[in-house]
Amino acid sequence: MHKIPVGILGASGYAGRELCALVSGHPGLELAFAAANAQRGETVRAGAREVTFVAADDAPLGAAELVFSALPHGASAAWVARVRGAGKRAVDLSADLRPGNGDHTAPYGLTEANRAVLKGAEVVANPGCYPTAILMALLPLVEQDLVRPGATIVISAASGVTGAGFTPRPDLLFAEVTENYNAYGVGNEHRHLNEMRAVIAAAGCDVDLLFTPHLLPVARGILATITVPLVRSLDDPLAPFRRHWAGEPFVEVTPLPPTLHDVTHRNVVRMSAHVAAQMRTPTLIVLAAIDNLVKGAAGQALQNANVVLGLDEPLGLPA
Ligand SMILES: NC(=O)c1ccc[n+]([C@@H]2O[C@H](COP(=O)([O-])OP(=O)(O)OC[C@H]3O[C@@H](n4cnc5c(N)ncnc54)[C@H](OP(=O)(O)O)[C@@H]3O)[C@@H](O)[C@H]2O)c1
C-alpha cells in the first residue's frame, strides 16, 4: 500500500507521542517528521518503533501531506498557518481553532457528528478531551429535542493526569496525586466550556452548562457524569443514543455504567444513560468514558486525518 507522509509538531508531548505510536502502526501513513522543542534531538520509543525528534524550525513541512499540530494553545495557530503556507493540510489538536475560541473557521473534528464537512477539509480543529466525551453524550438528546429548554446541564467529569500535559508541575507530583482526588477549575470557568457552549448553541439548544472537572490518580482516561433535565420521561433511556449513533464503530452504548478499563488505549466513546428516580422534572443521568489521549486527542485526530485524506475512517485505529 502506498503510504502517505504525515508530520507531527509537538511530537514529544503526551498527545504527540500517542500520535507517533498510532502513525507508526498505521498501514496507510508514514512519519515524515516528529518535531519537538526542549526535547529536540531525543530518541524515544513510539509503539513498535523509535522516533528521533527534530527541532520544530527544522521540520520539513513540505515533505508531509498532512501535519498534526499537538502544540500548546496559543502556539499552535501560527504553526498551522505555516503548514497551510507550505500548501499542506493540518489537524490542530489545540484549542486555537475550535468553536468558541475566537476566529474559528476550521471544521470541528468531532468526527461522528461532522463527517460530511470534514471530507477533503484543509484544516481540522480537533476537539478537546472533555468536550469529546461530553458532546458525544449530549448530542443525541440535543438533536432529538429531548433537553428541557432553559435547563442547567450539570457535568462532573474526572481526567487522568496526562490531560495536563508533559510540563512538570508540583501539584502533579506522584505523591500529590496518588490516593488522592480533587476538583479543579471550580466556578464554571474551565476553558473547554466555550467550545461545548458553542457546539450546543449551534445545535439550537438553549441551556446552561455547569461543568466541574476533577483530577484522577491515573495516567489516562476521562469519566463524565452528566445530569440532563428532559422535556419528557423516557421508557428506554438508551434508545435516543442507540438511534443517534447506530452503526458507529467507535461509539458504544451500554446499559452498564462505563469504566476507564473499558476504554483506555481504545479510540471509543462508551456511554450509558439512566433514569433518575424521584425527580419532579424528568431527568437523565448520562455517563461517558474515553481515553483522553486516544479518542480525546491522538486517536480522533487520526480518525479525522483518515477522513480528510480519503482513507477508510477506522484504518490504524485501536477499536
Ligand atoms: N493531553 C491531553 O489529554 C490532550 C487532549 C486533547 C487535546 N490536547 C491538546 O493537545 C496539545 C498538546 O497537549 P499535550 O498534553 O500533549 O501537551 P504537552 O505534553 O505539554 O506537549 C506539548 C508539546 O509541544 C511542544 N512545544 C511546546 N512549546 C513549543 C514551541 N514554542 N515550539 C515548538 N514546540 C513546542 C513540546 O515540546 P518539548 O516538550 O520538546 O518542549 C511538546 O512536544 C495541547 O494543545 C492540548 O490542549 C491534549
Please tag this protein with its features.
single chain; 319 residues; alpha/beta; Rossmann fold; Dihydrodipicolinate Reductase, domain 2; seven-stranded mixed β-sheet; six-stranded parallel β-sheet; 9 helices; 15 strands; globular; binds NADP nicotinamide-adenine-dinucleotide phosphate
Question: Could you characterize what this model shows?
Answer:
There is one protein chain. This protein is an alpha/beta fold and 319 residues long. The protein has two domains: 4-127 and 296-308, Rossmann fold; 129-292, Dihydrodipicolinate Reductase, domain 2 (2-Layer Sandwich), CATH 3.30.360.10. It contains nine helices and 15 strands. It has helices at 14-24, 76-85, 111-118, 129-143, 174-177, 192-202, 239-244, 260-263, 294-308; strands spanning 4-9, 29-36, 43-46, 49-52, 54-55, 66-69, 89-92, 123-125, 152-159, 182-183, 208-215, 222-229, 251-253, 269-275, 283-290. The strands form three sheets. Strands 10-11-9-12-15-14-13 form a seven-stranded mixed beta sheet. A six-stranded parallel beta sheet has the order 5-2-1-6-7-8, with helices on both faces. Helix 3 links the parallel strand 7 (89-92) and strand 8 (123-125). The longest helix has 15 residues, at 129-143. It is globular, with a radius of gyration of 19 Å. The mean pLDDT is 97. Bound molecules: NADP nicotinamide-adenine-dinucleotide phosphate. The site of NADP nicotinamide-adenine-dinucleotide phosphate has 32 residues, from helix 1 and helix 9.
